[in-house]
Each structure stands twice: as C-alpha cells, then as structure tokens.
Amino acid sequence: MLCQTALVLLVVAPAGGDWIGDWESYRGHYYRLTAEMRWDEAEALAVGVGSHLVTINDAAENQWIAETFLPVTNVIALGLYQPPEAQEPDGGWQWISGEPVTFTNWEGGFPEDPVGDKDLAILLKPPATWIDYDGYRAVSLVEMVPEPATVFLVTLGGFALLCRRRRTTWTCHFPSAN
Ligand SMILES: [Ca+2]
Ligand SMILES: [Ca+2]
Q1: Among 162, 167, 151, 169, which residue's Cα sits nearest to residue 51?
Q2: Which of 38, 49, 110, 175 might form a disulfide with 131, Cβ 3.0–4.6 angstroms?
Q3: Is the pLDDT of residue 13 over 60?
Q4: Which domain does 97 fall in, by range?
Q5: Which ligand lies nearest to the CA atom of residue 54 in the structure?
Q6: 107: domain CATH number?
Q7: Which tens digits make up the pLDDT trace of 89-122?
C-alpha cells in the first residue's frame, strides 16, 4: 500500500503565452484553455502536448466544461469539425481525436451553414449549446488523455520511491510497509 503523501518532483509546463489558466482534471482526463487563436493553430498546440482539441462524449462532460471554463470565456472552440466534402449543414461532423460522435448539443436550428463556410463547432455561454462557425480566432479547449502510467522504483537518500509518470508530471510516493 502506498502512503497518502505524494511528492511532485518535477512539473514541466508548456509556454504560458499560448494558454489560459492551468490544467483541470475530470474523469481522469486533463483540460486546458488556449489563448485566442485560429482553430488549426489551437489543434497544433494540442498535438504538441500529445493531445487534441476537446471531444465532448456526453452531457455530463459538456456540463462540467461549462461550469469549469465558461466563467473564464464566453465561447469555447471544440474539436468537432466537418470535412469539406460533407453534406451541409449537418453531415459528416467528426471529432479531431478520432473518437466516435456519441453526443451533440447543437443550439436549436444549428448547424445552419447553407454554403459550406462554417465547418467548425463552438460552445456558447450557458446553456452551453453549440453552433457552427467559420474558425475565427477564439479560445479553444484541449483535452489530454493520459497514457497508462509508467511506474518504477528509484532510491533517493536511502529511501525507496515509487514514481509514476503522467506525460509531463512525475509523482513519487514513499511505499509503506503493510
Ligand atoms: Ca472527452
Ligand atoms: Ca458547414
């Protein structure tokens, strides 16, 4: 059994200028807002930290995102997009993460694009519904899915430490005899 006290040895944070606030955790995933930028720039930033723009899988996740981040920003660009060949206005929408579309929360009448220039989705102030938009510079949300933890033992000053890595964070625990 591990003792309750965890020692965080090292946290490597990405450059601050591209981000708003810190990573927030929900159901084992980590979320962080980007600064205002184009959708493709935000996705590239996400890929740079081993992530993608957010995939909203169900109503509970949508609600948590609204409660956590809408106090900070009026709109949140999502990882939902529509390929150019898709039928307008509601055909072919998919998540940039590759996860299946299991939940949508479109505002009534949306997506409404008649001509094919609104192929991205953005979440609005409460009630946290979505509309299609043309990719203007906006705050986006990144969702990081941690890899399975890497676990190993090291010795430090005669004490054994059990270390786990979650992408950029090393967390070490003193194993207790039990
Ligand atoms: Ca998700
Ligand atoms: Ca469209």
Answers
A1: 167
A2: 110
A3: no
A4: 15-144
A5: 1
A6: 3.10.100.10
A7: 999 999 999 999 999 999 999 999 988 999 999 9
Ligand nearest to the Cα of 81, by number: 2
Q: Which ligand approaches the C-alpha of residue 57 most closely? A: 1
Question: pLDDT confidence of 176, banded at 50, 70, 90?
Answer: very low
pTM listed for this prediction? 0.76
Indicate the number of domains in the chain.
2
**How far is the centre of ligand 1, averaged over its atoms, from the C-alpha of 19 (Å)?**
19
Q: Do 58 and 127 have their domain in common?
A: yes
Tell me how far apart the alpha carbons of residues 110 and 124 are, in angstroms, rounded to a whole number. 12
